[in-house]
Amino acid sequence: MLIQNLKELGADKIIIREANPVVPPHVEYSLTECGEELRPVLLAMKKWTLKHNI
User: Fold this and answer.
1) Which of 3, 4, 6, 1 is nearest to 31 (CA)?
2) Quick one: fold of 2-51?
3) Which residue among 15, 18, 25, 44 sits deepest, i.e. has the most Cβ atoms within 10 Å of its Cβ?
4) CA proximity to 30, closest of 43, 42, 19
5) Closest CA relative to residue 31, chosen from 11, 16, 41
6) pTM score, whole prediction
7) Phi-psi bin for 13: left (phi > 0), alpha (psi -120 to 50), beta?
8) Which residues 6+ apart lie within 8 Å of 54 measured at CB?
């Protein structure tokens, strides 16, 4: 489920996946410029959920 969500976020150009060719495999994800624009929205959603105990 998580991998599918990460693939969708990548396809939507919200995150970047960077696989490092090491053993064991290591993958890093980062926000694209578009993804960074979502940061204030996500922080507002987090604040709302904490306020309403959700």
Assistant:
1) 6
2) Arc Repressor Mutant, subunit A (1.10.10)
3) 15
4) 19
5) 16
6) 0.76
7) left
8) 48
The encoded tokens of residue 3 equal: 């991998």
HEC-encoded secondary structure of 1-54: CHHHHHHHHHHCCCEEEEEECCCCCEEEEEECHHHHHCHHHHHHHHHHHHHCCC
Both structure tokens of 47: 């604040």
Domain limits of the chain?
Answer: 2-51
Query: Tokens standing for 2?
Result: 């998580």
Residue type, 39: R
